[in-house]
Structure formats: C-alpha cells, structure tokens
C-alpha cells in the first residue's frame, strides 16, 4: 500500500467536518490483471432524498517540491489515470484532487492550472490545513 500524503489526516478530518462519511481509506480498485490502484479516500453523503447518495474519491497532493510545475505534472498524470479507471469501475463516483487553498492560488489560478479547470480535465477541493476545513469545490 502506498504512503499517505502529508495532508491525508487533515483532509480526512475536514471532509468528516463537512458532513462526508469516509467509506474507504484508501479507496482500492483491483484491476482485471491483478494490479492494484489506491486513491487516497472514498467518501459519500446524502445530498437530498430525491437525489440519493453522492459518491466521490479524493486524491490528496501537498505540492511540496521546489517546482510547482513538476508537482502539477505528476498530480495531473495520476488524476487522469485514476479518473479513467474510475469511469470504468465506479462510474457513479466523481474524482477530486485535494490541495491546500494556498496551492490552489499559486498553481491553479495561474494559466496552466486554469486551463485544466476550464477544460474540465481536473476537479479540485481546497482545504485549510490549520482549520482542518474544506474551503471550496471547483468543478
């Protein structure tokens, strides 16, 4: 099983504080030929009686390297891979990349990050690590 991200427990607490139930830690998918894929968290919540249960998977990234672009490249590759696999194995589950609000400003409000968001390639959930709180959901 892979190592947990630096902010793993913070994001987990923030999601619980926001009304999510953590259903998987980590969210495990076993591929047909025996390979294993681990997304950091699986969660769900009741959104309305008529709409049912909303299911998500969350991959947490801390962006702690000297190069934000290298971190972005790695996170994007992982996000795209996980998204494609989730589409086949758990199509009702939406994937989000969890980053701090600071990373959101420094990386995803810049041109490269904005293109990924505007083109619908990546979805973000931002959090405040000190408050252990979810700040924004960015589709």
Detail the topology: elements first, then pairings.
Blueprint: H1 8-17, E1 21-24, E2 27-30, E3 36-39, E4 41-48, E5 52-60, H2 68-89, E6 93-100, H3 101-108, H4 111-118, E7 124-128, E8 133-138
Parallel strand pairs: 5-6, 6-7
Antiparallel strand pairs: 1-4, 2-3, 4-5, 7-8
Describe the protein's architecture and organization:
By secondary structure, the protein is an alpha/beta fold. It is built from 4 helices and 8 strands. A 6-stranded mixed β-sheet has the order 1-4-5-6-7-8, with helices on both faces.
Key traits:
XisH, two-stranded antiparallel sheet, alpha/beta, Restrct_endonuc-II-like, Fatty-acid oxidation protein subunit alpha, tRNA_endonuc-like_dom_sf, 139 residues, 6-stranded mixed sheet, nucleic acid binding, Trna Endonuclease, Chain: A, domain 1
Entry summary:
The chain is an alpha/beta fold. It has 4 helices and 8 strands; from the N terminus they run H-E-E-E-E-E-H-E-H-H-E-E. It is globular.
Outline type: globular
Low-pLDDT residue intervals, each spanning 5 or more residues:
none
Order of helices and strands: HEEEEEHEHHEE
CATH topology tier name of the domain at 11-50 and 71-97 and 121-139 = Trna Endonuclease, Chain: A, domain 1
- How much of the polypeptide forms β-strand, as a percent range? 25-35%
Number of helices: 4
Amino-to-carboxy terminus distance = 29 Å
Oligomer: single chain
Count of strand segments? 8
Biggest sheet: strands side by side, in what order?
1-4-5-6-7-8
The CATH C-level name of the domain at 11-50 and 71-97 and 121-139 is Alpha Beta
Give the mean pLDDT: 93
The second-level CATH architecture of the domain at 11-50 and 71-97 and 121-139 is 3-Layer(aba) Sandwich
Please outline the major beta sheet.
Answer: 6 strands, mixed
């Amino acid at each position: 099983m892979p190592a947990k991200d630096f902010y793993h427990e913070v994001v987990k607490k923030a999601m619980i504080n926001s009304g999510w139930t953590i259903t998987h830690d980590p969210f495990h998918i076993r591929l047909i030929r025996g390979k294993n894929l681990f997304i950091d968290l699986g969660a769900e919540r009741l959104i309305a009686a008529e709409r049912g249960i909303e299911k998500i998977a969350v991959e947490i990234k801390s962006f702690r390297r000297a190069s934000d672009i290298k971190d972005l490249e790695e996170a994007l590759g992982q996000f795209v891979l996980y998204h494609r696999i989730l589409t086949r194995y758990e199509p009702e589950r939406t994937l989000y990349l969890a980053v701090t609000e600071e990373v959101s400003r420094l990386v995803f409000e810049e041109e490269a990050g904005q293109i990924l968001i505007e083109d619908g390639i990546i979805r973000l959930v931002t959090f405040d690590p000190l408050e252990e709180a979810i700040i924004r959901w960015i589709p």
